[in-house]
Design a protein that fits this description.
293 residues; mainly alpha; elongated; Regulatory protein zeste; transcription; DNA-binding; DNA binding; Myb_DNA-bind_5
Length: 293
């Protein structure tokens, strides 16, 4: 008899995936909670049961909670890979076609998960926010200087007007570069040739010598302590051996005394036996009768 085979369910369509993301969104804080205690797990099971009910009421293909959870986890992994590949293609060199844009479901899931997928802001290397517009155009120096001044000037005004007053947060508009209206320029000599100088505080030779001396003294102290501890340990072992030898001598003397006591006891027993034998002979002689022939 052949075993019962589990019927394979239908694949999730794009509509089903989008519906699943919409059903998960109101309960995102509970589902993405990292706690693993019983109360949190029970709450997650209850939420997934409610999500399953909402999903099946709007979908033509009914699913169970296990299938929906598996699909949601697979969607998260897929979105992370697609977003990383999109960023890699955006930074890639060598020309080629534009990277393929993410589908609406992936964009929606990225907006929901946020920090789980998007990296932290970094302005100094390729981990910075990558440009979502056309990669063939770049901002001019005049545009950058204008945008930079528009950000720095409110900060300077705020610092000048805030002396002796209660500090409040200034409202600073972020730098926005219009890549469509920007014109590519290759003459960037003044900015490239400008060098940034850093003041490096170096230690003097006397300070280095003091550090070396202190390190040598510390090592010497540690070696002295180690030697002292080893000597104390050897002395304790020697005392222990001496006490053990004394204990063995005492045990040997005790064994000798016990042996002598046993010999003395045997001698006493022999003497008592002879005495009893002599007494018995005397008694037999007193009460002896003549033999009549």
């Amino acid at each position: 008899m052949e075993p019962n085979k589990r019927a394979r369910s239908k694949n999730f369509t794009i509509k089903d995936k989008s519906l699943l993301v919409d059903c998960v969104k109101p309960f995102l804080n509970v589902i993405e909670c990292t706690e693993t205690n019983k109360k949190s797990n029970d709450k997650k099971e209850t939420i997934w049961a409610e999500i399953t009910t909402n999903f099946n009421s709007q979908s033509d293909n009914p699913r169970d909670a296990k299938a929906l959870k598996s699909c949601y986890q697979h969607l998260k992994m897929t979105v992370k890979k697609e977003n990383a590949e999109y960023k890699r293609q955006r930074f890639a060199t060598g020309g080629g076609s534009e990277p393929q844009e993410l589908d609406p479901t992936s964009v929606k899931l990225i907006s929901m998960l946020g920090s789980q997928i998007l990296p932290l802001k970094n302005l100094y290397d390729s981990g910075s926010d990558y440009h979502h517009g056309s990669s063939s155009s770049s901002p001019t120096i005049e545009t950058l200087e204008h945008n930079t001044s528009s950000v720095i000037s409110p900060v300077i005004d705020y610092c000048e007007n805030s002396v002796g007053e209660t500090l409040t947060e200034p409202t600073v508009e972020p730098i926005v570069v219009d890549s469509e209206n920007a014109v590519t320029e290759t003459t960037v000599g003044p900015l490239v040739n400008e060098k940034i100088r850093f003041s490096v505080k170096r230690k003097s030779h006397s300070n280095k010598l003091d550090d070396i001396t202190s390190n040598v003294q510390a090592k010497k102290v540690r070696l002295d302590d180690r030697s002292r501890i080893e000597e104390e340990l050897v002395e304790l072992k020697r005392q222990n051996y001496t006490k053990q030898n004394k204990l063995l001598d005492i045990q040997l003397e005790t064994a000798k005394l016990q042996n002598e006591a046993a010999k003395l006891e045997v001698s006493i027993k022999k003497t008592q036996a002879k005495y009893e034998e002599t007494r018995l002979e005397q008694l037999c002689g007193v009460y002896s009768f003549p033999i009549v022939s």
